[in-house]
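Late entry, magnesium ion complex.
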Amino acid sequence: MTTPDQDRWLRVKERLRAEVGEDIFQSWFARMDLERVDGAAACLSVPTRFLKSWIQSHYTDRVLACWQSEHDEIQKIDVTVRSAVIRTAPPKVKQPDVIDSGRDPRIARTDNGDMRAVYAPISTGHDALGGSPLDMRLTFDSFVIGRSNTLAHAAAKQVAVAHRGEPVMFNPLYIHAGVGLGKTHLLQSVTWTGNRGAERKVLYLTAEKFMYGFVSALRNQTALAFKEALRGIDVLVIDDLQFLQGKSTQAEFCHTLNALIDAGRQVVIAADRPPTDLESLDDRMRSRLAGGLVVEMGPLGEDLRLEILKTRVAAARQYHPGFDVPAPVLAYIAKSVTHNGRDLEGAVNRLLAHNKLTGQPVTMEMAEREVRDLIRPQEPKRVKIEDIQRVVARQYNVSRADLLSSRRTANVVRPRQVAMYLAKTLTLRSLPEIGRRFGGRDHTTVLHAVRKIEGLVGNDTMLADEIEVLKRQLQE
Ligand code: ADP
Ligand code: MG
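Prediction complete; structure with ligand written out below:
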């Protein structure tokens, strides 16, 4: 059934699609739904917290503008995370540090008729510390080690089992990777393991929670207590640092970090990009972050995906002994759901839900149907500015230093412009950031370069081909 608001929403979506292009639309908006229009507020929902934060920090104005073109009474956009769950109240756990080996997934039907296995939230003693909630399944036991995460895992483990007072080996430990590659899993594993003996206090906070804690402490004039509490812990674990926003929270974070590190306390951080690419932080902060151990986790290889699937199925079987996924089906999912760990989890949940609700065994045919929409085209690879500079320098036979230098001879100017153009089109970096990474140039210089190359590729087919080749090299 369609309502006028839903009709408007469809048109808003079309506007968005036209404005941001198909790729970006598919990445961020395809799964966004209109919940309702509430006076001047359009209430939208997305399936994950990540999407929510991303849309809020990058696209609120744009979404609002598209709404206003359709319906000028809308003044505000609210984005919430859709929960498909018939929520059960979190059980009160008296003993704070009991660690369960898993949770009993229940099956729920979402508003749009999807079936999913859902997990009841479980409160832990960790909440009492003011930390972000932990997921009991995200432990070292369930973390599968593969080529792409060996180093990150080893470093995290080391941090987790260290004792109070022991010298800290690397500080901070900074782990970065794209979405769904296991950052949160690893950080929560550190938190669980680290808190086990109750010898040390390990606090897990998302950057959002850190901001929220700080802002509300300021409001209640308890900022001092907040700072003291933070400084009283042994290991501070911060997830999704890229979402840390606002000058005063950043300054506060910076102080906290410095105070902890100087006091020999461990800091562990995860983000979706390396410290050098955290544009909104100042230089000193970036170098402090880069001064410990920085580890990247790469994409999950097929072997690793298969192992993760097996682990997930085994965990589900603890509660649903009748649930079985034949080996060829696992192999098929590992091969075709390449996106990230979250989709693997989603795939297993769907098979389980289907199996429980219909009583039918999991077959290849059923799997193909259930996971079809998880088989998305590969998200474009994360391209780094250094890679662009390296590849362009090689192609045009100049040095990377030439690209960053102030030389203005023709043989350097064009490659530099091409490199800046590629940086703008292949990464999410802003013009000022790109300028900074190209020898401290002004953002107007970058903009000029981008426009120049855009203008040229229309007529100069040789240049257009060169750029295609460069793009392909960078994205493979
Ligand atoms: P990120 O925080 O990097 O976006 P998550 O840690 O939330 O990613 O991982 C997404 C999903 O993939 C989770 O269900 C997680 O358990 C699973 N996952 C990712 N990497 C691994 C791994 N190496 N072993 C087991 N599960 C993994
Ligand atoms: Mg995460």
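The beta strands are 33-38, 41-46, 76-81, 105-109, 115-119, 173-176, 202-206, 235-239, 266-271, 293-296. Will revisit in the morning.
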